Every structure is written in structure tokens, then in C-alpha cells.
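Encoded backbone
================
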Amino acid sequence: MDSDEEKLGYLWFLGICEESFKIIVSWKKIFTQITLAFILPLSIIFFVQFQVSENPKARIQFEKYRLHHRGDNERMDEYLSSQRIEFWLIKIAYLVFLLVLSLLSTSAVTYTVACNYTGKSITFKNIMSMVPKLWKPLTITFIWSFLFHLAYSLCMLGTFFLSIVWQLASVVSVLEEENYGIKAMVKSVSLIEGKRQVTSFIFLLLVLFYYGIMIVYQLFVVYLWNLGIVVGIGTLCLVLQMLLFLSSLVIQTVIYFVCKSYHCENIDMLALANHLEALLSLNLRGKPPTMSS
């Protein structure tokens, strides 16, 4: 491990944020392309689901009030049943699009940040050809994360730390070939140890920023009918959300390298570069080398 890699292990809040910002600036062209291709649609879906979910609620309340006063209980039951079906179909479609775009964004950004540390030159075309090959490990990791999250929720335990583990596990799934699914989650738990305070603080701030943007959007776009304000605030919220998503993905990848360095795990940049190169090779035979742990 060289001196630059060793320095990563000593980074805390400001250092991690500064490192992430430098990476975004130095690769601004390719991150802009990733944002327009994946993060922009993801942000739009986040905001659209507010409109889609809030409008039916208001319509249902109005119809319930109207049908109740008319004494038409049978029709009210039929109406509520159809509205529930419509609501859940929309929710399912939203979750599918959310999952697809989240996995695409995560794999693209993680790959780009890893290329920054290995000194590998890439193009957006490289990323588009690489992303489908990471679908399996990321999907398996997501399923395990969801199951653990559901179990924790049912047991009424805190899920904030589990969310951090899931974020880091996604990076592990991209950069370590053999570690995905539950293995990626176990590995991410071990990596976070010793850096739990700073990672928790960073992710807490990101969550607060996210809810802050959503609250502003809900107050000034969902519930307001002034077209000028709706367009202006809506556009501002969309831009801030895209920047937040991009920053979050870069930061979680930087945290991976910081945690690896902190635990004095050998970050074999040559092996990592070969692994990244293998993701681009359509005719690769055998297994590419992985990062030593």
C-alpha cells in the first residue's frame, strides 16, 4: 500500500467530502453524461411519485365524502377497491423503475470512481457496455439488503445503520467479484467498523438533505397552484436532487476505499484495474483477478 492509499484511511468528514468533490470535478464530463442518462430519470421518478400518490389521495377523500352523504355505500366500496388496485399498480411500476435506475446509477458511478483510483482511462461508451454485466451481483445484493431491512423493520429495530451497510455493499458488489449478496453485506459491516461514526454522520446529512428537498417540493409544487412558482421551485428541486444523488454515489465509493485503507487491507490497484478491464471484455475467458482483501 503506497503513501497515497495510506492517507485515505485517515480521512474523516471534510476529507471524504473534499476527495469526492475533486473526483467529480476531475471527471465532470463523464459524470454529467451519467447524470443525464441515469440520475436525471431517477430524480424525475422520485418527484413524479409524489404527484401520483398525493392526487389519488385527495380524489379518494373527495369521492368518499360525496358518496357517503348520498348514502351510496355499495358504489363507494367499488370505487375504493378500484382506486386501491390503481394505487398499487402505480407503486409497483414506480419500484421497478426505481430499482433499475438505482442499480444502473450505482454501477456506473462506482466504476468511474474506481477508474479514478486505478488511473484507467474510460469513456461513457465503456460504462454503457460494462453496466449490464454488474446486474446480477447488484440485484442479488439488493434482494438480501431488502430482506434484512424488512426483518429489522418487522422487529421494530433501527434500520439507519443497515441502510449504510447496504450502500457500501453495493460498492463491494461492483469492485469485488466474489463478494455480492450476503457476502457483500458481511464485508461492508467489517469495513465500516472503526469508521462507523463518520459514515453515519455523512449518511445522516445526506438523508436530511434529501428530506429537506422533498419537503420543499411538497410544499411549493405538490400543494401550490401558482405555475411560475411550481416551475421554478420544481426545477430547482430537480437539480438539487440530481446533485445529491450523484454526490451520494461518489461519496459511498470513496468511503469504500477509505475503509479499506483504514483496515490496512491491500488495495491492489493493478488487480482492480484488471477487474475493471475484464468487465469491458466481451470475450474474456476464465475469471479476472479480484482485489485482495
Summary: Residues 73-118 form the longest helix (46 residues). The mean pLDDT is 79. Residues 206 and 248 are 7 Å apart (CA to CA). The two ends are 12 Å apart (CA to CA).
